[in-house]
Amino acid sequence: MLYILGAMLGWAVLGSFFHQVPFSWHEILISTAWIVLVCWLVNKGLSKFLGIPANKESDLITALILALILSPAVSQHDYVVLAAASAVAIASKYLITINKSHVFNPAAAGAVIAGIVFHRYASWWVGTKFLAPVVILGGILILRKIKRFSVVAVFLAIFGTSLVWSLPAGSSTDTVHHLVWLSLISTSVLFFAVVMLIEPLTSPSQLNASLAYAVVVGLLYSVNRLHVSPEEALLIGNAFAFVIAPRHRYKLNFIRRLQEAEGIYSYVFAPPKKINFQAGQYMEWTIAQNKTDSRGNRRYLTISASPTEAELMFTIKHPPEASLFKQKLDQLQPGDHILASYLAGSFTLQNHGGNKLAFLAGGVGITPFRSMAKYMIDSGQKVDAALIYSANKPEEIAFKPLFTQAAAVGLKSFYTNSVSHDFLLKNLPDFSQRTFYVSGPFGFVQAMEHLLLELGVSNSRIVTDYFPGYNS
After folding, report:
1. Is the domain of 176 the same as that of 267?
2. Domain match, 63 and 205 both
3. Phi then psi for 33, rounded to 5 degrees?
């Protein structure tokens, strides 16, 4: 997200030289720098004053969004407006919270309050034809990463339907198509959808709730007679999302580190209270640290513990040159704490309905299957399942004793360094009857999905989960 927002601003600066955006390059750059500075100062000050660890990249993302939706400053008064919007945006993360989670999209909150106080509302100048290609490409990359295509599709469908209904009766199909396309590339709707609507911490993670959220925001955004601005529509949607899908933030005490295999380690934590989750789900984990690298101080990691266990655990692979996040993990001492939030994920067995299953794991993609296998053992749940675990070498195979134990409940395990067409045919002759769960690095998941489709397995029988950047 950070890189894509930076690319949008860079493209806007380039466009200013050719009069493709309504502001000069120096107005854009100076205003952006001012917003970044204010956001950084407020974020640092509130984090220190309240004793709450800050997400180091979060203030910068908020700043760049504000720079793209608020008009650049051309007067001293404008700089005051930008500063106020920036301060409110960051403060909302700390002060408007429930269950230690912030409720409203920070940039939208800052824009609304600044508009109310100074009567200078968001111009959404990012919505120009010149910026549209970068917004579209960046949006595809974002949605591919966080898997929110359905949310954006529902929102855009409502937007398009509203446009069609506003046309005079009898308008030609060509007219309809042209109007919808022109509205998409000449307004801020795409930026709103792919950057702000799907912001993970203020939108639901569960599919049904996220679709309901998209419907509510889409109607508020699209129906003109409601007289609701885009940022107001988003804030109302955020409140609705929190009501139907409440979020929690937990402070977890570190207990111990376990080496599961060569280069693979588990980190075990004691939660303050029971956290209800399903085997295969993930959480966002944040470490308080003064120094971070470009990847920041938070990660989305699968819970490798089972819901039947009292402790929480995640498991990661340590590369030779680990990120500062992973270095900090290795410095944790018993009693130190980490923050966990945003419980989500549909890579679960909730709806498998007694079907035959097959688990394909690549490397550290084994973690959700560890959670599932432990849950099966503890609950006595009988299954007809096969685990195919691909690792570069035997020393990198984690949790093997647990999977051996899981044979008692019907989980057969196979270990290999490469999953091929012949391997599947030999070890899973009934593969056409199984539902496949595939987890691992993105390249592994893509390769397995392609292999299964070649074998004739339908898309409906393939459930995927991938680990972006798992080696960093």
Report:
1. no
2. yes
3. -60, -40
